[in-house]
Amino acid sequence: MTLPLILFYVLIAVVCIQIIYYLSFLFVFGLKPVETQLKKQIPISVIICAKNEAKNLKKNLPFIIGQAYSNFEIVLVNDSSFDDTLEVMEEYSALNSNIKIVDVKASEAFWGNKKYALTLGIKASKHDFLVFTDADCVPNSKHWLAHLSEKFSNEKSIVLGYGAYAKKKFSPLNKLIRFETVMTALQYFSYAQLGLTYMGVGRNLAYRKELFFNNSGFNNHMSIKSGDDDLFINEVANASNTALCFTKESFTVSEPKSSYRSWILQKRRHISTASFYKLKHKLLLGLFYITQFLFWSLTPALLFLGFKWQWVVALISLRGITQWLSFGFSAKKLNETDLIVFAPILEVFLIITQLNIFVTNLIFKPKHWK
Question: Domain Glycosyltransferase 2-like spans what residues (predicted)?
Answer without folding.
Answer: 45-212
